Amino acid sequence: MRLPRWLAATLLGCILLGAGLYWLSRPPETITVVSWGDTYGRAQTLALFHPYTDKTRVDVKVANYGGGLKEISAQVASGDIEWDVVDLELEDAASACRQGLLERLDGIELPPGANGQPARLDFVPGAIGPCWVGSMVYSQVIAFDSTRFAGTAPSRLADFFDLARFPGSRGLRDGPKYNLELALMADGEPAWRVYAVLATESGVNRAFAKRNVDAVLRAFAPDPAP
């Protein structure tokens, strides 16, 4: 027995409507994106994650971390993967890729840019790798409080390490990155030679000697509370 055409059309409409209501009512898929929090994380949420959710209905859960590969290594070793996407610094991304801690992107093609050109043309060299896609470019700057210097203010990298002429506390990243480069450049090494010099033991020793570790670290300590 065949259904009347009008009844079949009505049933089909009900099936489609029911499927649509089910899709709209089910909880959206969720991915966890790990980033650096604060103003940077809020900017990412507004500019990237919210528009992505609006377009795909994939909910983005944002978590914070302090950098490095320790937590990623632990998750991979245990098999209990909690993070889907991690905002890594380039050297950490490259190291994690070499260690097999990240999924490789082999065979994945990025969509072309707004002008129709291949996506790779929109990235700086090294921003696209076997396990990563760069999302931003940043730089490090040195700033000082001009009200703290009655006479000559700091004007060279060497002044940053000159505690005699420019006493007071400093702020540095907690780790060797940027600090050793800064020390060598303050010691007169041209920027283009810094990494070749740091690749040698004598170059590393020279950078640490320039920092005058004990005195400088004491200067980095926060002022005691009143």
Describe this structure in words.
It contains nine helices and three strands. The protein has helices at 5-25, 38-56, 70-78, 90-98, 157-160, 179-186, 194-198, 201-211, 213-220; strands spanning 30-35, 59-64, 85-86. Strand 1 (30-35), helix 2 (38-56) and strand 2 form a beta-alpha-beta unit. Helix 6 packs across helix 8 (201-211) and helix 8 (201-211) crosses helix 9 (213-220).
Task: Find the structural class using helix and strand composition.
Answer: mainly alpha
Strand percentage, roughly?
A: 5-15%
Strand order of the largest sheet: 2-1-3
Globular, elongated, flat, extended or rod-shaped: what is the shape?
globular
The total of helices stands at 9
Q: Which whole number gives the mean pLDDT?
A: 81
Q: Specify the helix fraction band.
A: 40-55%
Poorly predicted regions = 1-23, 217-226
| Count of strand segments | 3
Major sheet:
3 strands, parallel
Please give the radius of gyration in angstroms.
Answer: 27 Å
Element-by-element helix/strand order: HEHEHEHHHHHH
In whole angstroms, how far apart are the ends? 92 Å
Write the layout of secondary structure elements.
Layout: H1 5-25, E1 30-35, H2 38-56, E2 59-64, H3 70-78, E3 85-86, H4 90-98, H5 157-160, H6 179-186, H7 194-198, H8 201-211, H9 213-220
Parallel strand pairs: 1-2, 1-3
